[in-house]
Amino acid sequence: MFYQSKNISVKQTKVATLLMALFVFISPMSAVALDGSAEIFPVLNKQIHKGVASCAASMCHGSVKEYKQTNIQHNEYITWDKQDVHSRAYNKLFNKDFIAITKKLGLKAPHEEPVCLACHASNVPEKFRGSKFQMSDGIGCETCHGGSENWLKSHTNKKATHAQNLDKGLYPTDNIVSRARLCMSCHYGNKDQFVTHDIMGAGHPRISFELDTFTELQPKHFTQDKDYADRKVAYTTVKAWAIGQAIATESVLAMVLSNKFHAQTLFPELSMFDCHSCHHPMSDKSWQPKKGTGLKPGSVPLNDSSLLMLRHVLAQINKGDGWRFKKKVLALHSASAKDIDAVRQLANEMHVAMPDIISSIEKHVFTATDIKSMTSSILNEGIWGGYNDYVAAEQCVMAISVLTISWDNMKAFDQSLREQIKTELNSMYSLVADDEAYDQLAFRQSLISLRDKLIR
Ligand code: HEC
Ligand code: HEC
Ligand code: HEC
Ligand code: HEC
């Protein structure tokens, strides 16, 4: 029934190709503005959005072939236009499955409805739409890179530095924290744009995200090689995964603290909870302790999948931080079975700690030892029963594949082991391919099987 099956099968084939990649640079990232609430997203950067046509000339980003000798690919427009779903996002709003949702909700047609346009298009305020701006461009270059009024000229000037372009309104997509916040603004949402349970109830698919996996899937129109690292910020998959989990956690906590989570209503916002704890037949009798929550049968746990993953990152950087975070997550769950004020208080304490957490991850250089240890602790937690809910299992699979790919990039596996791991990963992906057929015991078994091969 859910979109996820389609989604994962793409990832599944990707994993095989990814495992082949053997190229990685490690260097600490620069510090950035850490207050998530201060992030000004490209759509609202108060610069004229000149439209995709302004980027698509063949000398600029519309070359048919990728340039090999230059810093950038020059065929970014073609990649986006032909392969990136973002380019079709607005046009798809006219499809019947989109229209069915707004009809059920009594909203305007999707292409006129601000609620949908916020994430499925580039809903730039009227006065910032340039002469070549077109809604039909969907999620275009400037929706991620920022309205180009002030940087369009300078960004091709060899004398202008990247920092100067950023000052002129280019969005810092190369900064992983800012990039993660940008993706999350649509792939999770925030207090201004969110896929609430009424939208889901009308038929919107469940959404999930993992920064590194989705960066590969988009697909990439940039090459993160040595010259990239010299010009911008070096990218490593593990760090992107870790920061992605931290920003996902930050987003969840910010939503809990917003009035979208719980207004003066009987129920809180259901889409922030584990969907499958409600959505399964009663005859299943499939309840298993969700050990990381301490909750009893019949409870509805908050969707804590990113918090679960973040804990492993923190424990690796600093045992004490990992431990403290784990205690807070448990406390948050037990508060959720009691009262809203206690939930808010805990969420606030955790949210306040996020800037330090994010900067500790940014500063950390993840070594092969770190990767092995995080992989092992995630596998063990799953085997112990930590991911009995589907959403956690799904994040676990994406995490394990990112980690093993990075590990492989450090030349840790020989050909035969690499093949075995690929097979294991593919079977793990197929176990989470259909959320409605998720089998906790089979999943735990597959984690054991991978652990036997990986952690010797
Ligand atoms: C917070 C951002 C957000 C809002 C608001 C939002 N969506 Fe979505 N929607 C998404 C994302 C992200 C996806 C893709 C999920 C994925 O593939 O992982 C999606 C996917 C969909 C899909 C499935 C697309 C496909 O190709 O199968 C439909 C249909 C859809 N949205 C309809 C709507 C409608 C109608 C509205 C307005 C009532 C809306 N959405 C509001 C973020 C949003
Ligand atoms: C969904 C978001 C998104 C969209 C849409 C998007 N980009 Fe990007 N783009 C990124 C990210 C993320 C990066 C990598 C980080 C960086 O280098 O800034 C990037 C990098 C780039 C780079 C830099 C490559 C380098 O080596 O420095 C160019 C050039 C670029 N994009 C052009 C475009 C063009 C042209 C379009 C429209 C046809 C476009 N982008 C659409 C997210 C996006
Ligand atoms: C303006 C909102 C917006 C932003 C920003 C955004 N996305 Fe998306 N993204 C969407 C929507 C909406 C869809 C689903 C489009 C559809 O199916 O019609 C989508 C789809 C995708 C898909 C395809 C998912 C699938 O199931 O096949 C990937 C991958 C993706 N986005 C990655 C990213 C990454 C990585 C970033 C950050 C660099 C990003 N997106 C930023 C709105 C956004
Ligand atoms: C606290 C329990 C609960 C949680 C958590 C929950 N839902 Fe629901 N959901 C419901 C109820 C109750 C209905 C209404 C069922 C009805 O009308 O028959 C519903 C309806 C739906 C429907 C419409 C089904 C239909 O028959 O048309 C969809 C789709 C849906 N939810 C998806 C989700 C997703 C996705 C999540 C997680 C992001 C989620 N729900 C989380 C209780 C929940």
Quick summary:
It is built from 19 helices and 2 strands. It is mainly α. It binds heme C (HEC) (4 copies).
Tell me how many strands there are. Answer: 2
Tell me roughly what share of residues is in helical segments.
40-55%
Based on CA atoms alone, the radius of gyration comes out at 22 Å
**Residue share in β-strands:** under 5%
Count, helices: 19
- Taking pLDDT < 50 over at least 5 consecutive residues as the criterion, the unreliable ranges are 1-34
Shape: globular
Q: What does the largest sheet look like?
A: 2 strands, antiparallel
What structural class do you assign from the helix and strand content? mainly alpha
Overview of the structural elements:
There is one protein chain. This protein is mostly helical and 456 residues long. It folds into two domains: 4-32 and 208-454, no CATH class; 42-170, Flavocytochrome C3, Chain A (Flavocytochrome C3, Chain A, domain 2, Orthogonal Bundle), CATH 1.10.1130. It has 19 helices and two strands. It has a two-stranded antiparallel ribbon. The radius of gyration is 22 Å and the shape is globular. Mean pLDDT is 89; it is low at 1-34. One heme C is lined by residues 7, 10, 85-86, 89, 92, 119-120, 139, 143-144, 179, 182-183, 185-187, 214-215, 217-218.
